[in-house]
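User: Let's play a game. I give you a shape written as tokens, and you guess the letters that built it. Ready? Here's round one.
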């Protein structure tokens, strides 16, 4: 398997969907909503927040993993930051009914650019595109809102 990453150009409809749900709506309050992983399970998607770094590029279907999670960090904010990055850097691939997502950090702690490797992956996933759309739409619906503490 090549370490060269492919970037993907989304259709206009797909680009507008990700822009609206993953970027434009981020100005809404996402902290006073149900946790994204709880809603995801309703649509057959498993979102995992891992404290360790990624070990390999493979990912099971219907799973999204976020690496480098620090306990107590806002999971909703973290999830949407990674979705935004994947969208902005053209690392969302839609093929048939599947959607593959990738976010990675190409720079070391000194700001030096690194070649792609699994340990640099900060989020990856392989999910049903239809299920992902339903998940994001429900997250931003009124029924996802929780009472402010």
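Assistant: Ready! My guess for every position:
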């Amino acid at each position: 398997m090549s370490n060269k990453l492919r970037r993907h150009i989304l259709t206009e409809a797909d680009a507008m969907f990700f822009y609206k749900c993953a970027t434009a709506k981020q100005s809404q309050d996402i902290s006073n909503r149900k946790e994204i992983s709880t809603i995801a399970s309703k649509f057959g998607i498993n979102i995992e927040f891992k404290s360790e770094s990624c070990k390999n590029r493979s990912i099971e279907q219907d799973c999204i993993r976020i690496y480098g999670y620090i306990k107590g960090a806002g999971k909703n904010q973290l999830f949407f930051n990674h979705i935004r990055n994947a969208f902005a850097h053209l690392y969302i691939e839609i093929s048939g009914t599947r959607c593959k997502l990738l976010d990675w950090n190409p720079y070391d702690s000194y700001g030096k650019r690194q070649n792609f490797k699994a340990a640099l992956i900060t989020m990856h996933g392989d999910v049903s595109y239809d299920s992902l759309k339903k998940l994001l739409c429900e997250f931003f619906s009124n029924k996802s809102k929780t009472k402010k503490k």
